[in-house]
Amino acid sequence: MKNLNILKRTVLITGAGGGLGQALVNEFFSRGWDVIATDTVDNITRLKNPDPGIRRLPMDVTSEPSIQAVFEELKGRNQDLDLIINNSGIDAYFPLSETPVGKFRDVFEVNVFGSYRVNRAFLPLIRKPGGRIIHVSSESVKINVPFMPYPLSKQALEGYCRTLRLELRFLGVDVTIIRPGAIRTPFLENLKNIKNPVENSQLSGPFEKFARQARQEVGKTGEPEVVARFIFRIASLKRTRMFYAVNNDPKLSIAAILPFRLLENFVYRRLK
To answer: Is 156 helix (H, G, I), strand (E, B) or coil?
Structure first.
């Protein structure tokens, strides 16, 4: 892997208060980068690295005024960005056929439109040519599973990123997707407390079976520091591909190439 020959670069990281976000902040800062760590007001306070060289800025990716405030602050300092890492993300579990649209929209507001807002707002600050945008997706995009809107949002994110890469190539800005497998973060802890939010749900039986099995189906988990190190390597490449995978589960890759009818019957038998 051939590294870019540039000194003291700057990265803006969203979702910096989470497990992978904190690992990304520490990895890039330890490598000599200027780090702008952003997250919601509550989450940014959880960032453990106290080094004053890391700039902590509260920013909610679902709020355009919040994003604009950070943009204006950086613009006022004549701050250029070499890299944006769209790491913010949330998951949820509910029957898509019964849950109010607001809960479904919430997942997309962070996982899809959050990246859209950030990229659009900070595009004027990204170095051209040579800047880069990395989106943290998920290996779960490979299949669709009942009661999980998260893979749907990541599939939408990846479709957006494909088009964005085509557009920004004209400006010399690179767009890349990272598909990590399971990471040892609070995301995994959520699997222990899956509950159907729909009262008197007609799908309560299959949902309960899904909740029990979801805790057992997590494959090999990677440490956030390992994934952050991998993302740093990709960020340092002179040229990148559209997709990179790290710690992916072979079972998902196999399931992804099965005819849908076989997958459908398998899921039905497991959850009936």
So the answer is: helix
Note the pLDDT tens digit of each residue in 98-147. 999 999 999 999 999 999 999 999 999 999 999 999 999 999 999 899 99
Amino acid identity for residue 167 in this structure: E
Greatest CA separation for the chain: 60
Residue 103 annotated as catalytic: no
- Which residue is catalytic, options 48, 154, 220, 244? 154
Each residue's pLDDT tens digit, 207-227: 999 998 887 776 567 899 999
Annotated active-site residue 154? The verdict is yes
The active-site residue, picked from 75, 103, 142, 150, is 150
Return d(Cα 135, Cα 133) in angstroms, integer. Answer: 7
Can you give the length of the chain in residues? 272
Alpha carbon separation from 251 to 1, 165, 183, 213 (Å, rounded): 29, 29, 16, 15
CB 107 within 8 A of CB 150: yes
- Residue 147 DSSP code: T
Give dist(CA 206, CA 192) in Å, integer.
Answer: 17
Q: Which residue has the tokens 């995301």?
A: 187
- pLDDT on residue 215: 73
Structure tokens at 183: 């990471």
Domain segments of the chain as ranges: 10-271
CATH pick for 10-271 out of 1.10.1740.10, 3.40.190.10, 3.40.50.1000, 3.40.50.720? 3.40.50.720
How does pLDDT run across 16-27, given as a tens digit for each residue? Answer: 999 999 999 999
pLDDT of residue 4: 44
